[in-house]
Amino acid sequence: MKLSLDKISDHNSKLKLSHQDEWDFLSNKLSKEGVDVDELIQKIKDFQIAVPSWALGAGGTRFGRFGIGGEPRNLEEKLADIGLLKDLTRKTDSVSLHIPWDIPSDYSAIKSLASELGISFDAMNSNTFQDNGGSETYKLGSLGNSKKAVRDQAVAHNIEVVEIGKKLGSKGLTVWLADGSNFPGQSSLRSALQWTQESLTEIYKAMPDDWKMLLEYKPYEPNFYHTIIPDWGTSSLLCKSLGDRAKVLVDLGHHLPNTNIEQIVATLMYQDMLAGFHFNDSKYGDDDLTTGSIKPYQLFLIFCELISGSEDGAQAWESISWMIDASHNTKDPLEDLMQALEMISISFAKALLVDRRKLTTCQIEGDVVGAQECLQEAFQRDVRPLVREARIQNGGAADPIMLYRSLAVRKNLISERGAESRSTGL
Ligand code: PSV
Ligand code: MN
Ligand code: MN
């Protein structure tokens, strides 16, 4: 289903009056405070986030899955859904593919569809957490398996993913490993780490010079005693042994409860080791809930670190990749992704409004209250008119979810693709 641009402008003219009032009020206020509003808007417009191919259908849990209907049945339909998200939000212009789920059957057709929709191919994801028809099983691990034949198969798969990505114009390989063990004694902790390092080295060497490797970490699940890459430190250690183009990917759900993720971000940026993000939110673990739905203050603080790290020259903003990694059982996935894109933009906008000079003075002078007030001043601000204005200027809808609902997009997708449609994925 393709959205006609008339629909967006009709919708925007209906909301114009109320938006204009709110926007005039906020922009006047910001200008009086000395904020360069045009520059601010430009930053928000430029900030684009990749959508994962696996988040376009309803996810499930080990207890079951409830389809939403009209889900994309193939890569072409996944791209079409992202095109829709792009038209409505102007917040995404790329897709992160997962192999083997998304192997194109016709590369030139996929590439021309993507360029027609204005979508590029962000980092590619390999999959060695499932058996995908190879002769060896990943039941007891992949890149860190004790059997050389299994490791070789997993390395070959990752290299194949790079080859597929090269044909599509991608520039990155994201590696998430389920490898670990369920019981003490099951695995040699040190050997497993060494085998993983050796396997990653082979993959890294096979990557083109202009590619980067994004290495995820996660403390537990599916293994519950030990995970070979459980934390940012281990990921960073491995990346450093590989080379400059391997960096740590922070998935917000991959931390134990109460971990100070903004500090991890600061530490990684301090060393120019931050590859990028998988945005989602978490109450307990790898919940993959909608970004900003549980801990919006944490998301804001993360953006504060990202902005200060890039402005201070610790790590270039452009070197960081932005992706969503979410999965939903009860929501329409497209609505969920629109909520996530909005929350990411809101948190980013609020963090841009922090008076960093004042904050630094408070920090130096030991003004604890002043420093906290500085952050609260920005965090408590309603920046929705600002984010909306940036979206309208970019050609998007004033209220993407409202328009999506009024056009009955899901109903149309169900009649086009069927109520039982489903793609491969998580
Ligand atoms: C599994 O934890 C996971 O959610 C990782 O975060 C990956 O990025 C994602 O699946 C896709 O492989
Ligand atoms: Mn992830
Ligand atoms: Mn995860």
From TrEMBL:
SUPFAM superfamilies: Xylose isomerase-like (SSF51658). Its EC number is 5.3.1.-, 5.3.1.14. Pfam families: AP_endonuc_2. Residues 105-288 form the Xylose isomerase-like TIM barrel domain. Keywords: Isomerase, Manganese, Metal-binding. GO terms for molecular function: L-rhamnose isomerase activity; metal ion binding. The keyword Isomerase applies. This is L-rhamnose isomerase/sugar isomerase. The lineage of its organism: Bacteria, Pseudomonadati, Bacteroidota, Cytophagia, Cytophagales.
